[in-house]
């Protein structure tokens, strides 16, 4: 990888600390500089391979939390991860104060907050971008759901993510 941020072709965005409530816990970095935060996984291989295939710059937004379920923690309409969308003006600031309590139980809300932060930072820097797809890797906490329930839970969340980024046909690889 190129060791120059002006030439780097693969970038990563995500939490820089495990505590998602700490100020300044979100960052964007070039791949050569290492991972954002202290944890990484297959996103490095995904980013590099996508860049090789397309020849374009790639930004991987990573958000994860172990032991979460699509049925509750990632459900945009359930409990602590839901909010009143009729008053939502689409900014990270709107969601910031809704991040209360145990982070595990607010995954959809917190991921949406961080996605909005990312988009606002890119917009403020004048960086042109297009959201082209989502890699989704999750599910062990849903092991007691049957396939119909799990499928319905994923479809609900995927459709909410598509609406959030305003790309109704956004490809999602699960």
Any descriptors?
174 residues; alpha/beta; three-stranded mixed beta sheet; two-stranded parallel ribbon; 4 helices; 5 strands
Please give the structural blueprint.
Blueprint: E1 10-15, E2 26-30, H1 43-54, E3 58-62, H2 92-96, H3 107-124, E4 134-135, H4 147-165, E5 172-173
Parallel strand pairs: 1-3, 4-5
Antiparallel strand pairs: 1-2
Explain what this protein looks like in three dimensions.
This protein is α/β, with parallel strands linked by helices. It is built from 4 helices and 5 strands; from the N terminus they run ββαβααβαβ. It has helices at about 45-55, 90-95, 105-125, 145-165, and strands spanning about 10-15, 25-30, 60, 135, 170-174. The strands form 2 sheets. It has a 3-stranded mixed sheet with strand order 2-1-3, sandwiched between helices. A two-stranded parallel sheet has the order 4-5. Strand 4 (about 135), helix 4 (about 145-165) and strand 5 (about 170-174) form a beta-alpha-beta unit. The chain is globular, with a radius of gyration of 16 Å. The two termini are about 25 Å apart. The mean pLDDT is about 85.
């Amino acid at each position: 990888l190129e060791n120059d941020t002006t030439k780097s072709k693969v970038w990563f965005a995500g939490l820089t600390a495990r505590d998602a409530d700490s100020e300044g816990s979100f960052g964007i970095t070039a791949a050569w500089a290492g991972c954002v935060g202290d944890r990484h996984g297959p996103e490095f291989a995904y980013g590099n391979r996508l860049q090789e295939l397309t020849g374009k710059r790639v930004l991987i937004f990573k958000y994860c939390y172990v032991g979460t379920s699509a049925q509750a923690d990632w459900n945009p309409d359930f409990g602590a991860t839901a909010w009143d969308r009729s008053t939502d003006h689409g900014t990270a600031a709107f969601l910031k104060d809704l991040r209360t309590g145990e982070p595990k139980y607010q995954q959809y809300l917190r991921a949406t907050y961080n996605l909005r932060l990312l988009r606002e930072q890119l917009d403020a820097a004048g960086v042109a971008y297009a959201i082209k797809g989502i890699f989704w890797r999750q599910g062990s906490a849903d092991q007691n759901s049957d396939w119909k329930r799990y499928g319905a839970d994923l479809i609900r969340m995927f459709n909410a993510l598509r609406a959030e980024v305003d790309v109704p046909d956004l490809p999602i690889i699960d």
